[in-house]
Amino acid sequence: MKLFRFGTIDDEKPGVILKDGRRVDVSGFGEDYGEKFFATDGLSRLQRWLQSHGDRCPVVGAAVRTGPCVVRPSKIICIGLNYARHAAESGMEIPKEPVVFFKATSSLCGPNDDLIIPKGSQKTDWEVELAVVIGKRATYVTQDEAMEFVAGYCLHNDYSEREFQFDRGGQWVKGKSCDTFAPLGPFLATTDEIPDPHNLRLWLTVNGETLQDSNTSDLVCNIPYLVSYLSQFMTLVPGDVISTGTPAGVGLGLKPPRYLKPGDTVELGIDGLGTARQIARAYESRGSL
Ligand code: ZN
Questions:
Q1: 87 Cα to the center of ligand 1, angstroms
Q2: Residue 263 has what DSSP assignment?
Q3: pLDDT (tens digit, 9 = 90+) per residue, 110-127?
Q4: Mind listing the pLDDT tens digit for each residue in 201-256?
């Protein structure tokens, strides 16, 4: 199944992309794609519901905004330096253990929403990534059982402000959490749709120029390893998002480095997980600051 969400910001409704490609509104099912949905086997229940109701679901027009493919989760956990060539371009070693950091969940947005370059930013950068969505509560799980805890996969752009991340002291979270820095989707593909998540091409262009083009086969730590590893330190909750790291080709690694400016168009995609497109624009005060 391919799950998506649509409508106005913070008022999205749940939808499903049917096998024939039609996007339909499944509000009639009565649940959005959040923690409770995944925790109560919502994927199976929705699949069954669709068999009797799918034909009667209203079609969602192509012009309707696509929202983030899950409800704002308890955590967006990111893995740093998980592709060897990206670690090299960042001037860092492949870490002995995974680098783990959070993104504020308020950075979540739709896959085609504008990227807002933060106030004062000079170094807003892109990072195409495969994201994993957790389907069941996971505490101290083994690598062998880890994939049972995965609901599905989606496309993510782990936007990063490099000055905030590296030059302002402390943890990376400051450079990772600005509004619109986590466009997620266009859809969540359940695990049955993606037989091998470790062999997916992922790519990203800026203004039509290909800058990232790699494959998830190059991940240093694979998905079962990461799910098991993270579950030793925190409970993974249904709906949580794990972003598995970015391959080489980010702006920081270019010589000279290159960062986004208003008007730039960023497009990205992963095999089987669709494409997304963000146009950069400058932060504008809403007049209250
Ligand atoms: Zn990243």
A1: 11
A2: T
A3: 999 999 999 999 999 999
A4: 999 999 999 999 999 999 999 999 999 999 999 999 999 999 999 999 999 999 99
User: What DSSP element (H or E) covers 241?
Assistant: strand 241-243
Kindly write down the DSSP assignment for every residue of 59-123, as one continuous string: BPPTTSPB--SS---S-EEEEES-BHHHHHHTT-PPPSS-EEEEE-GGGEE-TTSPEEEPTT-S-
Segment 138-164 mean pLDDT: 98
Distance 24 CA to ligand 1 centre (A): 31
247: number of Cβ within 10 Å: 25
What is the tens place of the pLDDT at every residue in 35-89? Answer: 999 999 999 999 999 999 999 999 999 999 999 999 999 999 999 999 998 988 8
Task: Supply 71's token pair.
Answer: 């409800």
Q: Which helix (H) or strand (E) covers residue 50, if one does?
A: helix 42-53
Residue listed under structure tokens 């590296």: 166
CATH homologous superfamily, domain 66-282: Fumarylacetoacetase-like, C-terminal domain (3.90.850.10)
CA of 157 to the centre of ligand 1 (A): 8
Residue ranges, comma separated, of all CATH 3.90.850.10 domains in the chain are 66-282
Instruction: Tell which residue, 154, 152, 157, has the closest CA to residue 187.
Output: 154
Expressed in angstroms and rounded, the spacing between residue 186 Cα and the centre of ligand 1 is 18
Secondary structure letter of residue 254 according to DSSP: S
How close is the Cα of 105 to the center of ligand 1, in Å?
14
Q: Do 38 and 134 meet the contact criterion of CB atoms below 8 Å apart?
A: yes
What is the Å distance from ligand 1's center to 283 Cα?
A: 22
